[in-house]
């Protein structure tokens, strides 16, 4: 655990603006599926969780991944939904509480595609496929070497685009501050991005640019519905839960092909998911993923990955311990250099909702360290209530 620094932390506490979204500082809480409730309805505990972190001066928060209004967007009955009267009323209440505490909140709209159970994937277990569930994916691959179904047809593609667009319009209507699309970690949008899952030979497959088309069409449809001023954030990652070494873009040129269509369609900011923020993305440059995405796209970016921690995300889910610890020095240096704009702090904020205040006041000794036991409190990570 190392949250300390001898440097000034001032760069973390500069205001930031994205269209009408004004933030008091650069500290963000990323999407974390930490809650569970029958029917996926966020209750008072969920509102308390986010409002508490707004009180702790987190400038911007993303909700846990929320299932969009599509029959197979997700199949865990305790994870949060973004459709139906009760879940949406619940989210409206969460937004009100966060705003009352001075915070800003963005829902992470999610479609899992062809992943049956995330926790199986995380444990490296043989993936389960249930044909009767009707899960969809670009080419029917559940793993890069295992085709289990047909790929999506045009009507299925159009239905998902429509479901994301309706989700974004709902986010705007409820009072959220922007919308984020979950285009990372090997879920549906990312299944299109990555050639390991996308083997299509039509306009949605082949080149990186073609593989970005599905996401670009979603973004364009959202932009059409929400108007020019509502920010659209796209979360992307190179790594997949199914393959940590996967790369959508193997070099900056491929990255340009990947991001160009998304920028043209109307993305305002990229949320760049990495397991360790200090790791360079391409050889020959210290820039991390968020650094390269900012350079290539010209848009603001969010970096993430083990800030204030000495174990990475997967290590805290029971896998091998990551070898390196990092103080805040490196992060501050990268931000002072202007590599990226915002930094997401995940597990450190699960452990200590006052992380921003304490870092600003240099009360490093008072920070509550993250321990894997905190993950054990998460209902979302517990086995399904509805069977295997
Ligand atoms: C309990 C838990 C749940 C997560 N759920 C999501 C999620 O729903 N959507 C998502 O994009 N990332 C999810 N993540 C990844 C985080 O957003 C973040 O990228 C990751 O924890 C790395 O940041 P950290 O090292 O500061 O914790 C989750 C992480 C954790 C620990």
Model description:
By secondary structure, the protein is α/β, with parallel strands linked by helices. The chain has a single domain, classed as TIM Barrel (Alpha-Beta Barrel), CATH 3.20.20. Helices cover 32% and strands 14% of the residues. It is built from 13 helices and 12 strands. The protein has helices at 44-55, 85-100, 118-122, 154-174, 188-193, 208-211, 213-226, 252-265, 289-297, 328-336, 347-351, 355-360, 372-376, and strands at 16-18, 21-23, 27-29, 60-67, 105-110, 141-143, 146-147, 179-185, 232-240, 269-273, 301-304, 342-344. Strands 3-4-5-8-9-10-11-12 form an 8-stranded parallel beta barrel, surrounded by 5 helices. A two-stranded antiparallel ribbon has the order 1-2. Helix 1 runs parallel beside helix 2 (85-100), helix 4 packs parallel to helix 7 and helix 8 crosses helix 9. The radius of gyration is 19 Å and the shape is globular. The two termini are 35 Å apart. Residues 311-315 and 317-325 have low confidence and may be disordered. Flavin mononucleotide is lined by residues 30-34, 64-65, 108, 182, 184-185, 235, 273, 304-307, 309, 313, 345-348, 375, 378.
